[in-house]
Design brief:
This protein is α+β, with helices and mostly antiparallel strands. The chain is built from four helices and 13 strands. The protein has a five-stranded antiparallel β-sheet with strand order 1-3-4-5-2, with helices on both faces. The structure holds zinc ion.
């Protein structure tokens, strides 16, 4: 074969080693300091009524404070951008985030301005996955307030060669917090995370109870009955394996929590807020997704 130089496993792993050895990239400073309006928007959107906010920021917001906006600029020494270029050149052109793990060292207060640095922690592959052959790329981010490290994140993506197969959809993200949920759907059980300390229900799952801050949650099994709280009719863009338009509904379950899913077998014109629905489990690759049907 002639043409441009082939980028293979050896070149990928050599580039990964070189980038990892560069260590920490130069800091990128957040556009705005930690601020109350953003905290209020976030906690309202998530329905988190913890009275500690907005005097302090929810720890899980940490990424927000250094987001690059609509037109982010990567610094020249950002190892992630370079690693992605190498994998793109080798044909691993698709990407899916697989998991992230955040560690918070302390609570942040409005007025603090954060910066973030990152280094390439690990590149592993090639691995055969349900999506296709790919490399797992792990980066480690550190957030700084002045010269104090206030939070960290391991972030893993899969860069893969897309399979030319119709109907492949991206699997949901499974983490330590959500594994119980996907185990449930596999057995046609809709599970809602429940605080073992105060009994509060919450969805989506997370590590800490927003009411009493307890860790080590358990779960309860939902009746699967609820009503449409809000919905969107998806016309565009096309989604692999789906015919548009389709309806994605935010359903308020009898137990009081809200959950997203596709609303099946309903004319988009007929959907309305308050429509009574029940859960239906839809196998999709390795996962079983909860969806809704009218009742
Ligand atoms: Zn609780």
């Amino acid at each position: 074969m002639t043409g441009p130089k082939q980028v293979g496993r050896r070149e990928i792993l050599a580039a990964a080693r070189e980038l990892a050895e560069q260590g920490e990239c130069s800091p990128r400073v957040g556009r705005d300091p930690v601020n109350e309006p953003m905290i209020n928007n976030w906690t309202e959107a998530l329905g988190d009524r913890n009275s500690a906010y907005p005097a302090v920021a929810p720890p899980a917001m940490i990424q927000v404070w250094t987001m690059g906006g609509l037109h982010p600029e990567r610094s020249d020494d950002d190892p992630i951008g370079r690693m992605i270029e190498v994998l793109d050149a080798a044909g691993y052109t698709s990407v899916v985030a697989t998991n992230s793990e955040q560690t918070y060292h302390r609570l942040l207060k409005p007025g603090e301005r954060l910066s973030v640095t990152s280094h390439l922690a690990d590149v592993a592959g090639p691995k055969q996955t349900a999506l296709g052959e790919g490399y797992f790329v792990t980066t480690h981010n550190t957030w700084w307030s002045g010269d104090e490290a206030v939070g960290e994140m391991d972030w893993r993506i899969l860069k893969f060669k897309p399979r030319p197969k119709p109907g492949v959809s991206v699997p949901p993200m499974v983490s330590r917090d959500t594994a119980f949920f996907w185990e449930g759907t596999r057995g046609n059980e809709l599970r809602i995370q429940q605080c073992a300390a105060c009994g509060a229900l919450r969805h989506p799952p997370g590590p800490m109870c927003p009411r009493c801050n307890a860790l080590d949650p358990t779960y309860t099994v939902s009746s699967g009955l609820g009503e449409v709280y809000s919905y969107v009719v998806h016309h565009h863009p096309q989604v692999p394996g789906k015919r548009t338009p389709f309806v994605i509904a935010l359903v308020e379950l009898e137990e009081g929590v809200r959950m997203l899913g596709e609303l099946l077998d309903v004319d988009p014109e007929q959907v309305k807020v308050g429509l009574p629905v029940r859960v239906r489990f839809v196998p999709s690759g390795e996962f079983t997704l909860p969806a809704w049907e009218a009742r």
